Automatic annotation (TrEMBL):
Residues covered by the Ig-like domain: 17-136
Natural source organism: Xyrichtys novacula
Protein name in the entry: Myelin protein P0 isoform X3
Keyword field: Disulfide bond, Glycoprotein, Immunoglobulin domain, Membrane, Signal, Transmembrane, Transmembrane helix
Entry's family note: Belongs to the myelin P0 protein family.
Membrane-topology annotation of the record: Single-pass type I membrane protein
C-alpha cells in the first residue's frame, strides 16, 4: 500500500507543474478610442516569485481581418525595443514599470487602420509558463455609447417612474384620508348643531 502511494505521488508530481513556474498575465478586454487620440494598453502579471531582473515583456499586433501577428515591442535586459519598421514605429512609447510588473505601452495619434488585437506576453524567470493576454482596440471617429450606459439609463428611468408612482399613491391616500376626516368632522358638527337646536325648541 505504501509503495502504491509513493508511486502515485511521483506520478502526480511529474504531471502537475510546479507552482514556481506559473505566471498569469492580465490586460484589458476591449478598449475604445478616437481617431487622433492616445491610448494606454495595460499589461501586468502575477508570479509566485519576486520580480526578476530578467523580466521581459512582449507585445504583438494582429490587424482586423488578418491572420498574422507582428511584433511591435519587446522589453528585456532593462531596455525597451520598438519595432522600427511596423505601423507603430513612431507612435509607440513604453510607459510601464517592470519593477512593479507593469508592461504597459502608449499608442499615439491613433488611426482607423490601428483597429485590431494586441497581445502581451511576460516572463519572470524562472516563472515562464503562462498564457499571453489580449486586448482588442476599436478606433472610432466618435466613441459610441456603450451598452452598459444605455442599460444604466433605462434602469434609472424605470426606478424614477417607480418612485414617482409610490409618491403619487401615498399622496392620494393622504388626500383621501384628509377628505374623509373633513367629512366626518363636518357631519359630527352638523349633528351636534341639530341636537342643540332641538333642545332649544323643547325649552
Amino acid at each position: 500500500m505504501l509503495t502504491f502511494l509513493a508511486l502515485a505521488s511521483v506520478v502526480l508530481l511529474g504531471i502537475v507543474p510546479e507552482r514556481s513556474q506559473a505566471i498569469v498575465i492580465y490586460t484589458g478586454w476591449e478598449r475604445h478610442a478616437l481617431v487622433g487620440s492616445d491610448i494606454r494598453l495595460s499589461c501586468s502579471f502575477f508570479s509566485w516569485r519576486w520580480t526578476s531582473e530578467d523580466v521581459t515583456f512582449s507585445w504583438t499586433y494582429r490587424p482586423d481581418g488578418s491572420r498574422d501577428s507582428i511584433s511591435i515591442f519587446h522589453y528585456t535586459g532593462g531596455a525597451a525595443y520598438v519595432d522600427n519598421k511596423g505601423p507603430f514605429r513612431d507612435r509607440l512609447e513604453f510607459v510601464g514599470n517592470p519593477g512593479r510588473r507593469d508592461g504597459s505601452i502608449l499608442l499615439k495619434n491613433l488611426e482607423f487602420a490601428d483597429n485590431g488585437t494586441f497581445t502581451c506576453d511576460a516572463k519572470n524567470p524562472p516563472d515562464i509558463v503562462g498564457r499571453p493576454s489580449s486586448v482588442r482596440l476599436l478606433v472610432f471617429e466618435k466613441v459610441p455609447i456603450q451598452a452598459g450606459v444605455i442599460t444604466g439609463a433605462i434602469i434609472g428611468v424605470v426606478l424614477g417612474l417607480l418612485v414617482l408612482i409610490v409618491v403619487i399613491y401615498y399622496l392620494m391616500r393622504f388626500l383621501v384620508a384628509r377628505r374623509v376626516f373633513s367629512l366626518s368632522v363636518s357631519k359630527h358638527g352638523k349633528k351636534k348643531k341639530e341636537g342643540s337646536q332641538q333642545r332649544q325648541i323643547k325649552v
